């Protein structure tokens, strides 16, 4: 049978993204307290399509996922991108993944609850491998901030979303803790999105664990939301400005950033 998708196309138009979207797939992530944790991820997989190719084989994206079934972790993240790039003869491959992560919240004497944290990974491979890790941390109305018992779930002030490029390994729980420290340090002050954004950013800077980060603080109020954001180091044209949209719409942000070859976090 003739391979129609690989035929030459004379229109000379490069397509920036072609692939599959919103693929639901089970994964296993590393858990600092319990070794591993099973969760369900939603994935976008896409490559660029050079102008000389008529199309791409969409079924191959799922075939690649299935090939890594049961060993889908961050150690394999780059391998999956390499497989996408090679099998689809692409100059760049991208994988975006969103999943819920659960860990203990609260330091109360009563049994603490399990808090849900929405996590996202944005990986790309062109000439360099790049990975951005994003975590959304809810902020409670109580004085304990984002570490309060989940029985207070109705009292949600808002959330803090951090997106980072890490210098070295960091657990998801450790990143959540850093955000919590910034939230807690702001409790004695008037709680505004501006002051909370500055406090969280200051904590991230002091750790010297990141090559780049962005903080977005959102407060939920009646009829609208307020937000503040900060990026370090500041860029003239940020390719991650869609973090604000991610907070509001729950969708993926674009990938395609520089990242060190050291993998910073394991799934």
Q: How would you characterize this protein structure?
A:
- By secondary structure, the protein is an alpha+beta fold.
- The chain has a single domain, classed as Urate Oxidase, CATH 3.10.270.
- Helices cover 21% and strands 38% of the residues.
- It starts with 14 loop residues before the first strand and ends in an 18-residue tail after the last helix.
CATH homologous superfamily placement: Urate Oxidase
CATH domain fold name: Urate Oxidase
Anisotropy-based shape: globular
Number of domains: 1
CATH class: Alpha Beta
Please summarize the sheet with the most strands. Answer: 8 strands, antiparallel
Q: Provide the spatial order of strands within the biggest beta sheet.
A: 1-2-3-4-5-6-7-8
Category from helices, strands and their pairing? alpha+beta
- Discrete helix count: 5
SSE diagram, text form:
Elements: E1 15-31, E2 35-49, H1 59-67, H2 77-87, E3 93-105, E4 113-125, E5 129-140, E6 156-166, H3 172-185, H4 193-207, E7 210-221, E8 224-232, H5 243-249
Antiparallel strand pairs: 1-2, 2-3, 3-4, 4-5, 5-6, 6-7, 7-8
Helix pairs in contact: 1-2, 3-4
